Amino acid sequence: MTDAASNALPAAEGHPGHLAPDTVVVSAGRPERVHDAAVNPPVVLSSTFVGRGEVEHGDRAYGRYSNPSWDPFEETLAELEGSRLPGLVFASGLAAVSAALSLLPPGGVLVMPQHSYQGSLAVAGQLADRGALTLRTVEIADTEAVKAQLAGADMLWLETPTNPMLEIAELKALTEAAHAAGALVVADNTFSTPLGQRPLESGVDVVVHSVTKYLAGHSDVILGAVVTPDEALRRRLVEHRSLHGAVAGPFETWLALRGVRTLALRIERSQATAALLAGRLLAHPGVEAVRYPGLVQDPGHERARAQMDGFGSIIAILVKGGAEAAETVVEALRLWVPATSLGGVESLIERRRRHVNEPESVPENLLRLSVGIENPEDLWADLAQALEKAQA
Ligand SMILES: Cc1ncc(COP(=O)(O)O)c(C=O)c1O
Questions:
Q1: Of 7, 36, 241, 269, which one has the greatest count of Cβ atoms within 10 A?
Q2: Active-site residue 188, yes or no?
Q3: pTM of the model
C-alpha cells in the first residue's frame, strides 16, 4: 500500500515538513521525477494485469480490484483529508455512500440528518424498508436532539452543511457522542471539500465524497470516493467495491485528478462570489430568507466559523411568492444554468422540490444556488433581473 503522505517535503530548516492544502492539490499524485518521465500520471486502459500466484481483493490482478489510474487520485484525496491510508474511488458518489452504509451490521441502527442528500436518504430508506437497517432521521443542527437518538445506534451519518438546507452539524461533539454510544461516524464532505473542512481531524471514521461535484469541478464526470484511516474498515470497503463492482473508470478518475489541480483556485473564487451574492440576496425584497453559513445572521454561522476553513459556495434562498415565483426566477435566468448538481465552474440553480424524493420539510419555494467562477457582477445582474420578473 502506498504511503499517502509520500508527497510531503522532508522537514528542513524554516519548512514545516508538510505542504499546505492549496499546494497539495497541485503537487500530490505525480509520477516519480525521473528523466523523461511524464509530469501527469497516465490513463491505464487495461481490464487485467499480468500476475501469478495468490490474489486478494485490492491486489492489482484485475480491473475490478484495482487500476493504476486510481492510485494518484486516491493518494491525493487521502493527503487532503489527512488520512494515512489512500482513499478509495467509486463509480459515483452514491456508490461511495452505499459502500459506507455496507459497514453497518445487519439490522443496524442508522442515525441520519433529515435533510441529507435525497439519494442518500432514499438508499437508507430502501434498506430500512426491507429490514436491512433501522433508520432514525434527526435534525442534525440540534446537537442535544441527535445525542438523544444515539442510544443503541450503530452508525451516525453526518452531512454538514446539509443538502439543500445548509444546516451545520457540530462535528466534534456529535462524533464524540456517537463513539461513546459505540457508533461509527461517516461524514459526507461533498459540500465543503477537504479544503473547507477535514472531518477525520474531528475523529470521524469515514469520509464520503461525490467527486462529481467540486473535486472534479467541471460537470463532466460522475465519480465518488471514500476515505478512512482505519485499516480494518478500509479492507471491508475494498472488498465491497471489488464484489459489488461499482468501480471507477480510469479516464473519469484521471479527469477528476485534473479537476483537483484547480480546486483551491475555483473555491477561492466561487466562495468569495457566494459571500457577495448571499449578502445582496438577504437585502432583496423578492427574497423571503437566505441560508448561507457565511452570513453572520445565519443560524449555523458561529458553528461553521469554528469548524470550517471556508463557508462554501452553495446558497439556499426562499423566493417570495411560493413555488410559482421560484420557478419564474429559474425560467427568467439567462446566465445561471437551470440544472441539478453543484460544484462545477458554471453557476447552477434549481428548485429542489422538483425532485419527487426531496423531503417535504424542504420548502416548495427553496432554490439552491451553486455559485460558479463567472464574473460576480454578471451573476448578480442576472439574478436581480430574474427576481424582479418574479415579483412583477
Ligand atoms: C451531498 C451529496 N452526496 C452524495 C451525492 C451523490 O453523488 P453522485 O451524484 O456522484 O452519485 C450527491 C449528489 O448530488 C450529493 O449532493
A1: 241
A2: yes
A3: 0.95
For the record, the C-alpha cell of 328 comes out as 419564474
Q: How far is the CA of 37 from the centre of ligand 1 (A)?
A: 36
Q: Ligand 1 pocket test: which of 89, 90, 94 has the largest number of ligand atoms within 8 Å of its C-beta?
A: 94
Q: Which of 147, 213, 269, 351 is catalytic?
A: 213
Which whole-number Å values give the CA distances from 370 to 37, 198, 201, 269, 379, in the listed order? 38, 21, 27, 13, 11
* Whether 215 contacts 193, CB under 8 Å: yes
pLDDT, tens digit (0-9, with 9 covering 90-100), for 114-171: 999 999 999 999 999 999 999 999 999 999 999 999 999 999 999 999 999 999 999 9
Annotated domain spans of the chain: 21-260, 263-391
Question: Is there a catalytic annotation at residue 389?
Answer: no
- Three cell numbers, residue 1: 500500500
Angle at CA 195, nearest 5°, toward 193 and 198?
Answer: 75
13 contact partners, CB below 8 Å, separation of at least 6: none
358 Cα–ligand 1 center, Å: 13
Active site residue 230: no
Q: Which of 85, 66, 77, 64 is nearest to 29 (CA)?
A: 77
* CATH number for the domain formed by residue range(s) 263-391: 3.90.1150.10
Whether the CB of 90 sits within 6 Å of ligand 1: no
Q: Would you say how long the chain is, in residues?
A: 392
- Domain 21-260 fold is Aspartate Aminotransferase; domain 2 (3.40.640)
What CA–CA distance (Å, rounded) separates 392 from 381?
Answer: 17
Amino acid making up residue 311:
F
